[in-house]
Amino acid sequence: MRARRAFGCLILLLAVLAACGGGERGRPLRLATTTSLQDSGLLGVLVPIFTGEHDRTVEVSAVGSGRAIELLRTGQADVAITHSPVEEAAALAGGRIAARTPVMRNAYVLVGPVEFAGIVSGAGDVREALRAAAGSGRRFVSRDDGSGTHQRELQLWAAAGVPRDSAFSLPFHGGMAEALELAARERAFTLSDRATFLTRGRELGLAILFQGGDDLDNVYAALEPAPELGTDVVGARAFVEFLRSPTGRRLIGGFGVETVGEPLFTPVD
């Protein structure tokens, strides 16, 4: 009788374990990502190929980098792609994420209506360009949402010696494409990643007014969850390995060539 009960308990335990494994495998991989990867269209290329190779659907939450890190940290996402190095380093050092893998880069650009070009034309670096923009009397659309772009914007304003709460700042909570639309409506400056601008901003009558320099380098990293969160660590690792694979790197490096005439992202070594 005891042997029969033990055998029955073993079968029940195996069934529970199988159900748990099947549940993880059966549900979508939850990806939290910065809005620029969604708005530029890159995810629309990467996700279907990953799904085809791994027979695994992906559920995308396009949010700011700060929110994406929070979703991963609290077990509401299985993997994240962000571009906020300071926050990423803090999360890694604090044990809130298990791994950070740089996967691609592009650059930030200062954009605005084409007639604003003369305002910043003499700037030698982005700090000078921002000081000129601040002194022009024109508005500046600020993401103001804790995103990677917003964090970089705050760093640049501080480096330029311009108070973040200046009257010219137009706070906005939303994605990069929406910020570009608002800048076009308000005839204002804004900071954008180059990929989203080239795919969404030029049709709005905006132009790149300043670009170049290490201060505007923009690195995207894939973040994996801490194991104790109970999220899909296996799926997260598979997704990161896909991004770093020859296929993933080819897709990243070639994205944008056919549509805008140049690569919009560069895989990192």
TrEMBL record:
InterPro entries xrefs: ABC-Tungstate_binding, PBP_domain
Boundaries of every PBP domain copy: 31-233
PANTHER family per record: EXTRACELLULAR TUNGSTATE BINDING PROTEIN (PTHR37945:SF1)
Annotated protein name in UniProt: Substrate-binding domain-containing protein
Organism, scientific name: Nannocystis pusilla
Phylogenetic lineage: Bacteria, Pseudomonadati, Myxococcota, Polyangia, Nannocystales
